[in-house]
Amino acid sequence: MATAIVLAVCFKAGLFQSAYDFLIPDASPPVLIRAGVQWTTASRSAMNPLTIASPPGNKSFAVKVVEEGSNRQIAMFIDPGSRVDTRLDPGVYKLRVATGKTWRGDGRLFGRETDVFETTPMQFTVGATGYRDLDVRLDETLAGSLPKTQISKDAF
When you count CB atoms within 10 A of the terminal residue's CB, does the N or C end of the chain come out lower? Predict the structure, then answer.
């Protein structure tokens, strides 16, 4: 009886999840998606350039650029070793990033292999020299000055 309780607690805590993921493949079917901006709620007059680049390899990135305190968002999909250019309205934004090998749709993201994180806020302003632009390189450590925090799939 004690063994069953210990196993139930370990299973509930997710201690066996990596073994399960290794032994049982993700059954959700792959979903074809084109690279680039998927949709945007930014204004048509958005002028602050944003470039997001992914490293070469076998992982793709789904990125949401989310403005704090508003409904403005931009969703994009970036293939390995590629980049996407877009424009933002002035404001404070966070990147929500999901990464993995095989896209399985909006509800499943990259399936069990999904890694999801969010960056610290970044501000886009219009200054004396014009619009501020930002280049972000996505990798395991999120290079540059944008530290990341792990978030749940549901928060993506």
Answer: N
